[in-house]
Amino acid sequence: MKLSILLPTISTSFIVISAIFVAFGWYHIVKRNRRTHEKLMLWGAAFALAFFLIYASRTIFVGNTSFGGPEELKLAYHLFLFFHITLATLAGVFGIVTLLHAFKQRWFKHKRIGRITAIMWLLTAPTGVVVYILLYVLYPGGETKPMIDAIFGL
Ligand code: HEM
């Protein structure tokens, strides 16, 4: 497998693994298993961080892959990509706030924002997989471009 596909494959898998941890973490707090919730959510956060580090270093050192599919799908792809990136970024910020509330034991706030964080992350993962499939599975990945060009289809 080429490095240009290997890194996105690893980072997309990390989002999926992270979302699986978050889903089980949520299940366990509903069942009142606090210790298990804490451990699973910290693993979820670790995989999310690993995803972000791979994604950011690839963006800085290699660039992002542009869409290689048909011209008529380009606009829909970029709108969807933009939705996914916005959701992922918001979920990241909310995730940090959720963790801070937990570490400071502000449980009411943690619980309230934690639900939003978990839902956003559970949507980020499948939309990320769709972007991956559109970019590398259904169509051959296009050229590698600077981030802004790849996001906005320039
Ligand atoms: C980003 C990571 C995390 C997310 C997304 C998250 C999400 C949530 C959610 C959604 C709930 C409410 C469950 C419900 O009633 O539906 C909750 C409750 C709780 N979380 Fe987390 N959590 C995270 C990390 C942590 C960590 C690291 C700890 C421990 C230090 C923790 C401790 C708790 C506790 C004790 C509750 C129960 C609060 C109560 O019932 O008053 N969470 N969390």
UniProtKB/TrEMBL annotation:
Keywords: Membrane, Transmembrane, Transmembrane helix
Alphabetical list of PANTHER family matching this protein: DUF420 DOMAIN-CONTAINING PROTEIN (PTHR37692:SF1), HYPOTHETICAL MEMBRANE SPANNING PROTEIN (PTHR37692)
Coiled-coil segments: none
Domain of life of the native organism: Bacteria
Name of this chain's protein: DUF420 domain-containing protein
Pfam families linked to this entry: DUF420
Transmembrane segments: 6-28, 40-61, 81-103, 115-139
Naturally occurring in which organism (per UniProt): Paenibacillus filicis
Keyword Plastid attached: no
InterPro entries reported for this sequence: DUF420
